[in-house]
Design a protein that fits this description.
single chain, two-stranded antiparallel ribbon, alpha+beta, three-stranded mixed beta sheet
């Protein structure tokens, strides 16, 4: 039993290190202007199913509600880089799960239509710890988290949001945040 427990700890730590190395490599590629995106036709429901499968279980283990909502007509296919969009969504939803103790997470998918274009919008709302104005100001800086206690309490490297925003920009989108301390 002790060996199985130890092997599980080693595996989790190894997975964490691989994720950290991948984040550093992605950030290096982005900053060196070597990151490329490969926009293809993507089946949006399939991509969302994959993302939900990767994130919902963590929420359920914490006894959090997890909802996926669609507002208005959503196209079945979109043109994007599936790998990078999946990476962004898994990171954002993962953060929502990480920083939420009670309540839940809601992912809302909608479509913004302008005169010449349309974009798919993903809103991730949670009932987590929230942030104050000062914390929001440093949110997308590399190796930065809300404060030193955040790293100790929740873990993380402070790279995920910076990478997610830069990837979203490469996909002609953005990542924005609204939060109130104690409100999520």
């Amino acid at each position: 039993a002790d060996r199985i427990k130890s092997a599980g700890i080693i595996r989790r730590n190894g997975e964490h290190l691989v994720a950290l190395i991948n984040d550093i490599l992605d950030l290096s590629k982005i900053e060196a202007c070597r990151m490329t995106v490969d926009k293809t036709v993507v089946d949006l429901p399939n991509l969302l199913n994959e993302v939900i499968a990767l994130t919902r279980q963590r929420a359920l283990r914490k006894s959090l509600a997890f909802d996926l909502k669609f507002e208005g007509p959503i196209p079945r296919t979109i043109r994007t880089d599936a790998l990078r969009l999946r990476q962004i969504l898994v990171n954002l939803i993962g953060n929502a799960v990480k920083f939420t103790r009670r309540g839940g997470i809601t992912v809302t998918v909608s479509r913004n239509i302008t005169y010449f274009n349309h974009q798919i919008r993903f809103d991730i709302a949670d009932t987590g710890i929230g942030m104050n104005a000062e914390q929001l100001g440093q949110l997308f800086q590399t190796f930065s988290q809300a404060d030193a206690s955040t790293t100790r309490r929740f873990g993380g490297s402070g790279l995920g949001l910076a990478i997610s925003r830069k990837l979203a920009n490469l996909l002609d989108g953005d990542v924005k945040v609204q939060s109130e301390e104690g409100q999520g």
